Amino acid sequence: MPRSLQYDRKLFGVTIGLCLLGAVMVFSASAVMARAQFGNGYWFLIRQLVWLALGLAGMFGLMNMDYRRLRQPRVVFTGLAVIFFMLLIVLVVDRSHQTHRWLRLGPASLQPSELAKLVATLYLAWFLALRTRQRSPAEPGVNDLVHTLAPALGPVVLLAGLIVIEPDFGTALMILLVALVLLYVTGLSLRYLLYAGVAALPLLYFLVLRVPYRYHRIAAFLSPDADPKGHGFQLLQSLIAVGSGGLTGVGLMESRQKLFYLPEAHTDFIYAVLCEEWGYIGAIVILALFAVYGWRGFRAALKAPDDFGRLLALGISTMVVGQALINLSVVLGLLPTKGIPLPFISYGGSSLLVMLLATGVLLNISQHADEP
């Protein structure tokens, strides 16, 4: 008698909990600004709920579709082709917020770079699992520069390069981080990581230190008090919000920093508003929820029945938890300011949709845990 498939209830519950908390915080952090800009305090909340409904529908669909169907070459390469096309198109459309990041679809907009994270993870999981399965013990495996490293990293680096041009440096780094994790766990030699680090130094110099706004972000991170009304303003306001919450917070909807003091209060810096309103206890709850997500995601990777499932689950878990840690570190002043949203919580339809789709795949992999 075949065993019934059961998804990971803890992972599912944590995901739903983060989404519900996110909806509450989006309304709390954006209501005043939405009323001032659009005459409707529910403007951002309604849009977030629409994307949440779409994301949940996609998540449930992927939960009930065998993840092994995703390893078909036509699925992988179609996904890559569509994302490359979207990233090229987005570079020629009108700018929004001084960047080329969004494709306008009537009243809605889509950020292809968010989808690129999931597609890059899918491609790497498929390709590395294929090379692992096909190689003989005498072959060098993932350390084969010509047959493995170059074709594995080629499309990924090209995706990251197009995203840097938008510009969206943070998302490009997130894609490369996932790639490095997947390559490392499949046996990448540390010497290649060292070579990559040395080779990247000149590129980082020109992309960070020679670009004025990125250079000022580094300077503000190192010494925000040096320019408190300029480049250090956002970080200082974030730290004021975090520190104002105390142990239990000032109460839901009672944040003062969101009242046009803290920029991007409902997007990248929503965790600062949460800390102010919910205090230290609320801040720890969010950390605990992401810790549980990571635990259950990595558990699904360890128990997956094949290399493709293991690598895909590991890549998705790294993408979600890694992005959360980067966002939290930025808000707390542990990393330079970067436009990376907090998964499931920050306002942003594209990010929410992709995170829920990725979680749907992860939940499906968890159903097949311990299969022979």
Keywords:
2 strands, mainly alpha, two-stranded antiparallel sheet, 12 helices
What can you tell me about this protein's structure?
Helix 6 (169-185) packs across helix 11 (307-331) and helix 10 (270-303) runs antiparallel to helix 11. By secondary structure, this protein is mostly helical. It has helices spanning 9-38, 43-63, 73-90, 112-134, 145-165, 169-185, 190-209, 212-222, 233-244, 270-303, 307-331, 349-367, and strands at 103-105, 108-110. The chain is globular, with a radius of gyration of 21 Å. The protein has one domain (9-367). A hairpin with a 2-residue loop joins strand 1 (103-105) and strand 2 (108-110). The model has no long low-confidence stretch (mean pLDDT 91). It starts with 8 loop residues before the first helix and ends in a 5-residue tail after the last helix. The chain has a two-stranded antiparallel sheet.
- Share of residues in helices: 55-70%
Q: Would you list the SSEs in sequence order as H and E?
A: HHHEEHHHHHHHHH
Quickly count the domains.
1
Sheet with most strands:
2 strands, antiparallel
Oligomerization state:
single chain
Radius of gyration: 21 Å
Mind sketching the topology for me?
Layout: H1 9-38, H2 43-63, H3 73-90, E1 103-105, E2 108-110, H4 112-134, H5 145-165, H6 169-185, H7 190-209, H8 212-222, H9 233-244, H10 270-303, H11 307-331, H12 349-367
Antiparallel strand pairs: 1-2
Helix pairs in contact: 1-2, 1-10, 2-12, 3-4, 3-5, 4-5, 4-6, 4-11, 4-12, 5-6, 6-11, 9-10, 10-11, 10-12, 11-12
